[in-house]
Amino acid sequence: MFDVLFNAVLPFLIILTVLVFVHELGHYWVAIKNGVKVETFSIGFGYELFGFNDKSGTRWKFSLIPLGGYVKMHGDLDAASSKKSEEGVDPKLSFHNKSLKQRSLILFAGPAANFIFSFIILVFINSFFGHTITKPIISEIEPGMSASEAGLRVGDIIVKLNDEEISDLISLKQVVDKNNNKDVKITYSRDSKINSTIISIRDNRIGIRGTVETEKLDLFNSLIKSGSQIYFFVKVTLVGIFEMLTGTRGTEDLGGPIRIAELSADFWSKGIQSTLWFMMIISLNLGLINLFPIPMLDGGHLLLNLVEFVKGSPLEKKSLEIIHTFGLIILLSLMVFATYNDVLRIIK
Predict the structure, then answer these.
(1) Where are the alpha helices (DSSP H) in the chain?
(2) 266-322 residue pLDDT tens
(3) Domain ranges within the chain, ordered by starting residue
(4) Is the domain 132-213 a CATH 3.90.79.10 member?
(5) Which residues are catalytic?
(6) Contact between residue 7 and residue 30 where contact means Cβ atoms under 8 Å apart
């Protein structure tokens, strides 16, 4: 029992707590910079386990259900940032009495904090541990696959595929995917001599493994590389979600808290570098998902701000209640479905 707690539950709680804290700290910091009084900063939901009040009157606390967190600002009725009645509210300190621009900045600050945190982690990893690249130097050839049939050997360096330059296995994979089920010209270097032959691409594969090398980057190059990695991960995530929505990709990869806990334990067991890498990915996804235009998420509130800007006034209270209820149903449905996937994965 203690082993399960220490090796599985504890890593999940630590990682999730850090990422939720970063997200809510973004909201908190921009809120106080815009003159909003923050009444509560909570890690988790429900019953308070422990906490303290700071000099400004903010209650910092840990709550019973550790699946998220919230910042409750002056003028909020609840953790979902619903507006309370004007009685007892100081307009100068209230979130809801700030300008549309200020409220939007406060809302955007949470996801932005997650993006910044992911970027900082990547810069550290690339500088301290090094950037891993799989060079197009063949380290292994699968028997019976196209590369073997074409006469390629271990140690050959792939230079071009259909006259497109190959710098690493990512660029090779991109060209391979574009030419699936086609015969293409492959140019490679062997014993310092350039050779070429025709190779068939089957099932998006040619049957080789590259050579993995790690290189520590200086700060400037780490900043550049980390920025390009953030762009790549965001793009891949959005494409994956789009494919799920359009039905071109299955939803079996969609995981919930159980899956995140499993992965937390797995990456935690592999050491600090793996743990940081996992935190970077989850933080990035947390920031990205919170920007989705779903009511009750930051993106949903930002969408309502856009409606208010176009309309010239906020939506009616009844309309907001319907929208928030609809958003809650969507979020609960997604959580139930993701947990269902987790359970299926376990019992298979």
Answers:
(1) 2-4, 10-33, 100-124, 146-149, 169-178, 219-246, 257-269, 272-290, 298-311, 317-347
(2) 888 888 988 999 999 999 998 998 998 888 788 888 988 888 888 888 777 777 777
(3) 2-34+98-126+276-347, 132-213
(4) no
(5) 24
(6) no
